[in-house]
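Project standup — Tuesday

K.O.: blocked on the structure for the chain from last sprint. Re-posting the sequence here as requested.
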Amino acid sequence: MTIELASNVGPARLALAYERLGDAHAPPVLLIMGRSAQLISWPDGLCDALIARGLQLIRFDNRDAGQSTHVTGGPAPDLRAAMAGDLSSASYSLSDLAADAVGLLDALGIDSAHLVGASMGGFIAQTIAIEHPHRVRSLTSMMSSTGDPSVGQPDWDALRSLAGPPPTTRDEVVAFTVKAFGVVGSPGFPPELDAVADRAGRAFDRGHDPAGADRAAIACIVSGDRTARLRGLAVPTLVIHGAADRMIGVSDGRATAAAIPGAELIVIDGMGHDLPRALWPELAGHIGDLIARVER
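H.V.: unblocked you, prediction finished:
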């Protein structure tokens, strides 16, 4: 793994950690991961399957994640207050995260790319397509949503088992992550817990930042519902969602596909809020097919 650091990225002039994989002359695909997740959350095997489809990949740490810039000096994030409607602790919005990603494309000399976003990464990818449409060749939104709070609510009964004091030490964070994947992961494709634990440990070492995770969550809240703006998109779009997603319900995937003109919806039975090994060939196939059609 060769991770590089791009400096002075985007309007915020941040440093973003990234990795570029595959043939640099192949169609570029920007992989955008979710809240507090890092570039290593894109499984190497899934990346290999996409590269085998003739693609180059750029995976990166969003601000406040991993080895990219962590926001300091702003208001202390108050997620509970934000969920109740008080947005005064917001440090940035999804538009800012979208501008970061576009700034990374600028730094790499890429005029336009295919976007693949997972979870909050889907929110960011959608926002790029809305606000920077000329930079987007295609959009794949996975296990994501429109931001409409009336659809796709989490399974709070299931998530209640994860309540409690936040983990702080490396061992606690690894144990909590393993437990969380058992709750929100794919019931039809049980997670490989050793791999989950290994990735959680590496993520802790690369940059554990609970406040950053809260800042990102507040960015989602402050940005609101994208549905009306999604209706104006004119970009080839694929929406992939797990039928068993307990974190972002499948109704959110359906709402996303319904909002974007011409979007293709794929609902995968047994898939939850993760990227299990058994689905890597299928996911790479769906994404690769969309990109191949667009490139032709």
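K.O.: great, moving the ticket to review. The chain has one domain: 4-155+209-295. The mean pLDDT is 96.
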